[in-house]
Q: What sequence folds into this?
């Protein structure tokens, strides 16, 4: 959360002569990050990021307190000015005639930790005083009139929300504030006129008739808010359960400064200071009179637990030894109570109530280290042993190798969302019911965890091609997880890393790309097995029949998909690729004899798979060392045959009968017709 | 052909002219152009003399003689034309023979491109591998226990509510709670401790997709983080600083510095914001500007000389305990940063809209 603090306002709480720029630099090193300084209305306004655990710093005084300690550490003169406010007991009506009855307060939830209130009467409605208005504007707050703006001013100054009810409205609605948790379906209208319905569980103030008269710590309601005619107010502070405040604020999307402070556990002990400061300002700027005793029900005071910490622990974290006097000085400046234990080896530290974030020794280490200055600690690499126990089944080098290989061959890598729309999920080949669904999606196009990368890739690729002339080819790939649902509540989805490729090239080109990819990992035994039931699907396997090793296990690697008219998709399971990949070839000595190479062209009957012709030709004679498809034209296909004898160089005369035998075989077995004569 | 001419009867003068022509035609011409022209084609030139003899030739032999004359004429004219070129023209002609237009644009090979996130992931992996980090991979869809509970995040922590984290509609584990999309890579911390059965040393780097319920120019519902975790005896804040300085120099280049400032995370204590010095202004927050009054102006690329990269901290004792490690014996540090954010702080990669990474914009992707 970021907060704006004008420099001159800060100086009302901090005594220093440090310049804004220097203050920004030094406070950022050891405390909250002062991200920017704006020049507004002649003043430097700090824009400060406060971490969620440091609600104590979310105010002018909170920053002044931090700055005082930090600047002092850097050798500057800096001091937190004391806050001189009267004790609550001193606030009383001037006379019995001035006294108005306080509304009855009834507590029906343990989620309320403190309520504090006082009636202020006979307010003179005045414009917001100039200095207050300037400061509120400098900190991006709206200006109303003094009676309303005082509450916003004090909240920024001291860091605890407060509220001013129209006292007469409260009394006319029954004169009772019932602090309770809402039932579902209750209606209320906030002071800006927006209507809401409770979901149940919100802390609300109700009147005896069950009407909601406030959404405490978040926003006031219209029926009790100050209007132009309000003369008497109930100045009020509550401290509530932080989680309940956040749930209500987020559920109804009512995000206010008050809610942000309260959900971060603003210190309930601040309430009396806020009340006293408020009374003072209402008296000064609205000539308000005190109309009641102060009501204070402190149900759950904070009682910070002492933390015992050894000096050895501090040394372990910092890597150096700090004198005990230095440590004690830092902690005391941070308003911790410090006792050095009799053995001088440890301390007992009791934090102030506003530092609820300090709970364990490591928290104390942090306070010492940051104020001492992280910039004062040396920088060094670890001298400990390098771990060698690595996880099994992962091969990041192979992933990089495949990614680079594809990119080098013209493939464009994409990163698409793991979350997909219902329409894309349905294209995965799995029914929606077999997808994991997000319970709280942010947008309709990202609802299901995908079970195939291909629909995302194809959709993206088609969009990419939209601006190009027809006939443009595109090759895209992605390495990402699939998320099949688990079978039981005690198992997680079996995430599976996939390498997916989508292209609008021809089948031969796409298959060639696949063969090249497997060649990269030294596997020449790729086999594509058409699916018997789905004509658009084939299985990608490795047969295990390698030239140097016929006994490799057969392995299913993934699938090849025809995606409509123009697109092809390949999906490979990375864990299978890790198993299949070889890091180097098995060296094959060059043949000692020359090969005889020739082409044969056949006319092929329709629907004859070329693969079966290649297999038949290859198996036709022991001298045939390889057969490849050279080219195709209409019904004719030309094959290149390589003949080789292991011990001697073959002659044309020797090949002639073999050639006839081969041709006869394919003519008879596959009904091919030789083109030309042999 | 000139052999044939010996059989044709010619007068002595014509025969001399024919012999001279034959001789001249067998080698390049030398000397002055005009002298040569007169020598061959002048009124008393050799060619004129030889051509004038046509009437003397027997009708049956005139065809052969005519053909010879034409050939000789053509060749001599070609040689005279060569002689007519100036020395500069000769030099120019020679240059044209081997001339290459070096300014022609190239015909590039059809290469593809790795995604920028892959570039970043590979660089990060290599940098940390060099100092002994082991890269791991853990679930992106994980139990609440690993994403939050074991990381010391209280049940009412805002990060655990439905406004910041995606929950998966699936049965709740009796031991490990709800299933979430990991909002950070920190779920790897306790998982890595468990993998090593609570026995450090640990130097882990985990790089993965993460998910948060936010979407604008600087946030996408899916993004990437890398997470470092070091646990051993005697690990101090100084080691974290050393690791950050090492990474800064390796990733952003020599001279880049790191610094840590106080911050807050539930799973580290102390916690830090990590900054790297700006490469534009060298960490000063000021750049030279000759038009400015004092010759300098504020650096527009950074906040006061530094870039916030992400979080880090000393591993919280409760996290070590959750991973079965005794915090009285071991300490450690962890850091986790956005891959996209870290990468785009490199010089020249100021990409304002993170959504570009997941847009499928070819014009963007082809630049990497």
A:
């Amino acid at each position: 959360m970021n907060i704006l603090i004008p420099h001159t306002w800060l100086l009302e709480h901090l005594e220093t002569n440090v310049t804004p720029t220097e203050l920004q630099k030094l406070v950022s090193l050891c405390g909250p990050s002062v991200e920017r300084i704006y020049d507004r209305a002649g003043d430097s306004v700090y824009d400060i990021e406060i971490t969620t655990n440091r609600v104590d710093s979310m105010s002018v005084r909170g920053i002044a307190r931090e700055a005082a300690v930090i600047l002092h550490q850097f050798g500057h003169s800096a001091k937190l000015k004391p806050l001189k406010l009267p004790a609550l007991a001193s606030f009383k009506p001037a006379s019995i005639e001035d006294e108005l009855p306080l509304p009855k307060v009834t507590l029906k939830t343990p989620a309320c930790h403190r309520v504090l209130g006082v009636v202020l009467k006979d307010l003179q409605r005045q414009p917001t005083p100039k200095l207050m208005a300037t400061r509120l504007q400098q900190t991006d707050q709206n200006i109303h009139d003094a009676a309303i703006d005082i509450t916003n001013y004090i909240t920024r100054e001291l860091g605890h929300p407060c509220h001013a009810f129209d006292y007469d409205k409260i009394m006319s609605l029954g004169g009772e504030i019932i602090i309770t948790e809402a039932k579902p379906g209750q209606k209320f209208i906030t002071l800006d006129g927006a209507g809401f319905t409770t979901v149940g569980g919100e802390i609300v103030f109700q009147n005896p008739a069950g009407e909601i008269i406030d959404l405490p710590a978040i926003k006031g309601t219209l029926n009790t808010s100050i209007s132009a005619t309000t003369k008497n107010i109930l100045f009020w502070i509550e401290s509530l359960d932080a989680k309940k405040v956040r749930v209500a604020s987020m559920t109804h999307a009512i995000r206010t400064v008050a809610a942000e402070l309260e959900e971060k556990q603003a210190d309930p002990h601040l309430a009396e200071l806020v009340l006293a400061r408020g009374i003072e300002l209402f008296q000064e700027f609205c000539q308000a009179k005190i109309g009641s005793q102060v009501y204070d029900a402190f149900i759950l005071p904070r009682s910070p637990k002492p933390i015992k910490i050894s000096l050895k622990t501090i040394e372990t974290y910092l890597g150096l030894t700090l004198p005990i006097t230095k440590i004690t000085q830092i902690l005391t400046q941070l308003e911790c109570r410090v006792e050095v234990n009799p053995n001088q080896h440890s301390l007992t530290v009791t934090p102030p109530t506003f530092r609820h974030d300090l709970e364990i020794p490591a928290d104390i280490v942090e306070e010492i280290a940051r104020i001492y200055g992280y910039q004062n600690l040396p920088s060094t690499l670890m001298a400990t042993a390098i771990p060698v126990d690595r996880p099994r089944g992962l091969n990041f080098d192979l992933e990089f190798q495949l990614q680079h290989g594809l990119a080098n061959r013209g493939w464009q890598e994409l990163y698409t969302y793991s979350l997909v729309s219902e329409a894309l999920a349905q294209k995965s080949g799995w029914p929606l019911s077999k997808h994991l669904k997000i319970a709280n999606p942010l947008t309709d196009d990202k609802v299901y965890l995908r079970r195939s990368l291909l629909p995302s890739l194809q959709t993206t690729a088609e969009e990419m091609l939209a601006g190009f002339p027809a006939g443009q080819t595109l090759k895209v790939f992605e390495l990402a997880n699939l998320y099949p649902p688990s079978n039981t509540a005690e198992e997680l989805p079996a995430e599976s890393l996939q390498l997916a490729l989508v292209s609008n090239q021809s089948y031969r080109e796409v298959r060639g790309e696949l063969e090249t990819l497997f060649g990269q990992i030294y596997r020449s035994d790729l086999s594509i097995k058409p699916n018997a039931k789905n004509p658009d699907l084939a299985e990608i396997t490795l047969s295990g029949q390698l030239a140097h090793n016929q006994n490799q296990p057969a392995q299913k690697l993934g699938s090849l998909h025809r995606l409509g008219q123009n697109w092809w998709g390949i999906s490979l399971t990375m864990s299978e690729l890790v198993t299949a990949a070889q890091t180097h070839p098995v060296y094959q000595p060059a043949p000692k004899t020359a090969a005889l190479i020739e082409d044969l062209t056949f006319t092929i009957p329709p629907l004859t798979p070329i693969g079966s012709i290649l297999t038949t030709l290859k198996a036709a004679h022991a001298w045939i060392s390889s057969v490849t498809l050279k080219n195709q034209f209409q019904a004719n296909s030309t094959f290149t045959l390589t003949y080789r004898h292991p011990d001697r160089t073959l002659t044309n005369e020797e090949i002639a009968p073999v050639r006839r035998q081969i041709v006869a075989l394919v003519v008879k077995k596959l009904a091919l017709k030789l083109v030309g004569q042999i | 052909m000139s052999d044939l001419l010996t059989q044709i009867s010619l007068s002595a003068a014509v025969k001399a002219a024919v012999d001279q022509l034959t001789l001249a035609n067998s080698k390049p011409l030398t000397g002055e152009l005009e002298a040569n022209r007169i020598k061959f084609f002048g009124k008393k030139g050799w060619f004129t003399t030889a051509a004038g003899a046509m009437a003397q030739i027997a009708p049956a032999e005139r065809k052969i003689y005519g053909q010879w004359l034409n050939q000789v004429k053509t060749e001599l004219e070609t040689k005279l034309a060569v002689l007519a070129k100036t020395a500069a023209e000769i030099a120019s002609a020679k240059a044209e023979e081997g001339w290459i237009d070096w300014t022609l644009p190239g015909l590039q090979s059809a290469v593809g491109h790795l995604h920028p996130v892959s570039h970043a992931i590979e660089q990060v992996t290599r940098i940390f591998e060099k100092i002994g980090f082991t890269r791991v991979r853990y679930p992106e869809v994980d139990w609440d226990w690993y994403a939050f509970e074991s990381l010391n995040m209280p049940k009412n922590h805002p990060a655990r509510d439905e406004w910041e984290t995606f929950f998966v509609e699936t049965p709740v584990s009796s031991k490990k709670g709800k299933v979430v999309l990991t909002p950070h890579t920190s779920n790897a911390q306790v998982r890595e401790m468990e993998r090593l059965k609570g026995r450090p040393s640990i130097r882990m780097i985990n790089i993965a997709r993460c998910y948060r319920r936010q979407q604008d120019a600087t946030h996408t519902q899916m993004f990437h983080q890398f997470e470092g975790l070091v646990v051993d005896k005697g690990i101090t804040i100084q080691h974290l600083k050393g690791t950050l300085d090492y990474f800064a120099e390796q990733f952003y280049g020599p001279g880049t510095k790191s610094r840590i400032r106080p911050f807050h995370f539930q799973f580290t204590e102390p916690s830090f914001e990590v900054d790297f010095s700006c490469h534009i202004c060298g960490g000063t927050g000021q750049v030279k500007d000759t038009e400015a009054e004092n010759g300098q102006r504020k650096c527009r690329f950074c906040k006061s000389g530094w870039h916030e990269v992400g979080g880090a901290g000393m591993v919280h004792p409760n996290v070590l305990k959750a991973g079965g490690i005794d915090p009285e014996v071991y300490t450690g540090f962890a850091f986790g940063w956005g891959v996209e954010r870290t990468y785009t702080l490199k010089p020249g990669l100021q990409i304002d809209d993170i959504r570009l990474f997941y847009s499928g914009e070819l014009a963007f992707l082809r630049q990497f």
Notes: Chain B touches chain A through 90 residues (CB under 8 Å). Chain B has a mean pLDDT of 90.
